Amino acid sequence: MTPCFIANWKMYKTGSEAEAYLRTFANQFALLEPATEIVIAPPATALAPLRACIDALALPVTLAAQNLHAAPEGAYTGELSARMLREAGCRYVLIGHSERRTHFGETDAQICLKIKAAGEAGLIPILCVGETLRQRQMGEGESVVQRQVEVALGDNRPSEVVIAYEPVWAIGTGKTPSPTEVAAMHRHIRTSLAPFHNVRILYGGSVTPQNIAGFMQECDIEGALVGGQSLSVGLFMTIIEQGMKSKMTRRHAAIGVASA
Ligand code: PGA
Question: Do 112 and 152 contact (CB within 8 A), yes or no?
């Protein structure tokens, strides 16, 4: 599957700052490996300016929203529906990011409803899952993540889904699991998702230009969800560049081994 790099800007950048970022990006992106999917998840107010800029520059960049409300419409002050986000030009939507679970009390049951709403409106959900440090220390990492995935998907059968494995203790901390630990978790997730075919599993949590190559060398890691380091065009571009170089080297080596 095409490797995917997602910039999660969280609550950073106004519309004009987002546009300036994309213009700088456009000047350099020709250097990147074409078989890459690049997604930006800006704050909702930057979606329209970014959409206009992407279309004007004919850039192969797609947009993701950072959240949605599960209802199609209604008296929910401050919320946005899947249909609104679709019309604003989003292809994806982040669902269940650990900051939403922690600061806004989002539960797996609510996340399940959001995934259903996203699928019905034609948005591809990017489901974020991950264990806390305590759960990991208790040896519960795999079971916690499996439960998060199972409850969130429930009876939902979206035609396409992206899972971002983001250990809570790795987000914004500079700490990460090793690439082999991440790959093992990804295999575990894939096994529990056996009926789904169109699934991409990404890693997120303190991804940097220095550590991305190690992650992308693992065939079970199909991209990255990047927070802090994606706020700088230069750092995000380097992450994509280094990540793709590593993935291509890995693939060529695998073909070499197979044909030897
Ligand atoms: P980080 O954030 O890269 O700053 O750790 C990742 C995320 O929250 O998606």
Answer: yes
